[in-house]
Amino acid sequence: MEAFYTLQGEGQHSGRAAYFIRLGGCDVGCHWCDVKESWNADLHPSFSIDSIVEGALQYPGRLAVITGGEPLMYNLDALTAALKHAGFKTNIETSGVYPFTGYWDWVCFSPKKFKNPHPDIYKNANELKSIIYNKSDFEFAESHAGLVSPDCTLLMQPEWSKHTQMLPLIIDYIKDNPKWKMSLQTHKYMNIP
Ligand code: SF4
Fold first, then answer.
1. 182: which strand partners?
2. Distance 111 CA to ligand 1 centre (A)
3. Which of 2, 20, 70 to mutate to test the pocket of ligand 1 (most atoms within 8 A of CB)?
4. Per UniProt, where does [4Fe-4S] cluster bind (predicted)?
């Protein structure tokens, strides 16, 4: 769908320069999705893997973040192998609903209530990023925290349209449950993509 060089705004790698590769296509259907234009893959052009890597190499950063849409709709072995061959660290942001593919340095798993994750994702997740939109999302987050590996980083992140309302609840929750950490969409505060 698009590719751009910016700072990673959220999660464990927040603040790092990164080349974002956003793949078109998603059938998860989150009602609060902020990239609904990604859902229909047919509306977006196709690019060769070589041209994607070439685009990434135009910038000095060597972190590539594959996002979507839902990037695991596609087998990502070839794209990630090519990025690694070119010297990139590879990170993914996924809802985990499709079988796991690709060669990754960091896997951000962000489960959604609207479609169940594929079981592959739990052993592969380095970071569980739970979006908090309403109070029932705390329980949903805990249900996934019980399934990821013990060294998986546990993050709670307020959904942007509700962040003013949910932030105080998340702060209190993390103070009571310190295995969790806060993740904020800092790129939105910085007004960058
Ligand atoms: S999984 Fe991501 S891209 Fe898909 S609908 Fe949900 S927020 Fe949007």
1. 156
2. 10
3. 70
4. 26, 30, 33
Domains of the chain: 2-190 (3.20.20.70)
Query: Ligand 1, atom 8: nearest CA belongs to which residue?
Result: 33
Contact 12, 155 (CB under 8 A): yes
Q: What pTM, to 2 d.p., does this model score?
A: 0.97
Q: CA 48 from chain center: how many Å?
A: 23
- At position 44, the amino acid (one-letter code) is H
- Which residues does the chain have with pLDDT short of 70? none
Cα–Cα distance measured from residue 94 to residue 70, given in angstroms and rounded to the nearest whole number: 6
Question: Is any atom of ligand 1 closer than 6 Å to the C-beta of 35?
Answer: yes
Query: Which single residue is written with the structure tokens 């047919």?
Result: 42
How far apart (Å, rounded) are the C-alpha atoms in residues 52 and 71? 15
User: Can you tell me the distance from the alpha carbon of 68 to that of 99, in angstroms, rounded to the nearest whole number?
Assistant: 16
Give the pLDDT score at 27: 97
Assess whether the C-beta atom of 33 lies below 6 angstroms from ligand 1.
yes
Q: Which two tokens stand for residue 63?
A: 């972190």
Question: Which residues on adjacent β-strands are paired with residue 106?
Answer: 91
> How do residues 95-107 score in pLDDT, each as one tens digit?
999 999 999 999 9
